[in-house]
Design brief:
With 348 residues, this protein is of the alpha/beta class. It has helices spanning 39-47, 132-135, 138-150, 166-177, 190-198, 212-219, 235-244, 269-273, 295-307, 326-329, 332-335, and strands spanning 3-9, 12-17, 27-36, 55-57, 62-64, 80-88, 100-104, 110-114, 123-125, 159-162, 183-186, 203-205, 225-230, 245-253, 276-279, 317-322, 342-346. The mean pLDDT is 93. Helix content is 26%, strand content 26%.
């Protein structure tokens, strides 16, 4: 029987077997060949803080607090899969057995997906020559593109991007495409700064070794950046963005962190320089530019750029480990971040 990786409790992983069901109208079965994790989102479940806010009430558009944490286990680590269609159900005409596709999916040896409808169940046919590492970066590209657009990055803008995880590294590439200069990438991990340089960043800074706000002001004729995109989800990251942005500029808060601890100071640089703080989430509808833009249009944009080779994921997806080794390798996202940018998986 096929297996899947599950997070069954806080920091507890196990493999479980599962039964495959018959395909229904419009469905396809996909054999997983490669996959990738989404570190920030998945760590909320793996570390256990994702349940602390309670349940989301879509009618009230807020979290309803509860006396005890919501049970979020078991959950399936893993975000996107590149695989091969091995079976098609009735009514499938756009895909065939043998096609190479991309879909959302956890670290599971097979997946059943509908061929139309909700984007999280959509299959994208992967053209020949597109590296699987770039294909699985569609999800970070979705959020990076949303952040760059929400920040209104324009030609000539100075841009600082805090955190060189997968979203930040795609944002570097998109900011360069938009004509931004300089694009300043910030991260404390050498592996990520090296990736940022390879993907087009003009300047890289380690914020643990300098006062990022001061250095960025020096690099921009004392103005500060026009747009600061914050994806670290940390107090120092957001405070650094507030210190580095120009008067009246934009701070794009894209991360979805746990509750911030003490240390944020909105009465200092932010109060005097009056930046616009913009919360960005590409999958929240309606889009800020509704009805012209929605997430489907952002997906279309990013998928085209990936297929044209303009978004490079080969540098981003590292390390790549065997599926059978995930019980050992997956926890290293937390314990050995210096080795990880975006964990990739090769299925046997």
């Amino acid at each position: 029987m096929p297996q899947e990786l599950l997070c069954v409790a806080q920091r507890q992983l196990e493999f479980r077997e599962y039964k495959e069901s018959a395909l229904r109208e419009g469905e396809v079965r996909i054999r997983s060949d490669f996959g990738a994790a989404k570190h920030g989102t998945e760590m909320a479940a793996y570390k256990g803080y994702g349940a602390q806010r309670g349940n989301w009430d879509s009618d009230l558009a807020l979290f309803k607090r509860v006396e005890s944490n919501v049970n979020i286990y078991p959950s399936g680590p893993g975000n996107m899969i590149v695989g091969t269609i091995v079976e098609t159900g009735p009514g499938v005409s756009t895909l065939a057995a043998g096609d190479r596709v991309l879909c959302y999916g956890s670290f599971k040896q097979t997946h059943v997906r509908a061929t139309q409808g909700n984007p999280y169940r959509r299959c994208w046919k992967v053209p020949s020559g597109v590296p699987w590492q770039s294909a699985v970066c569609l999800d970070p590209a979705d959020f990076a593109a949303g952040a760059v657009r929400d920040g209104n990055v324009r030609i000539g803008d100075a841009v600082a991007i805090f955190s060189m995880g997968a979203i930040g590294l795609v944002a570097v590439q998109l900011a360069k495409m938009a004509g931004a200069y300089p694009v300043i990438a910030l991260d404390p991990l050498p592996i990520r700064l090296e990736a940022a340089l390879a993907l087009g960043a003009d300047i890289v800074l380690d914020p643990s070794k300098c006062d990022a706000g001061v250095e960025i002001k020096k690099l921009t004729a004392k103005r500060g950046v026009d747009v600061a995109i914050e994806y670290s989800g940390s107090v120092p990251g957001l405070q650094g963005a507030l210190r580095s942005v120009a008067f009246g500029g934009a701070v794009v808060a894209g991360a979805a962190p746990p509750a911030y601890s003490a240390g944020l100071d909105f009465g200092s640089e932010a109060h005097l320089n009056r930046p616009n703080i913009i919360f960005s989430r590409a999958c929240s509808e309606p889009n800020r530019e509704h009805p012209r833009w929605n997430e489907d249009r952002i997906y279309d944009l990013c998928w085209r750029l990936i297929c044209e080779g303009k978004i490079n994921g080969e540098i981003i997806v590292t390390p790549v480990v065997p599926f059978d080794d995930l019980l050992v390798e997956y926890p290293k996202i937390e314990t050995n971040p210096e080795l990880n940018i975006k964990l990739g998986v090769k299925f046997s």
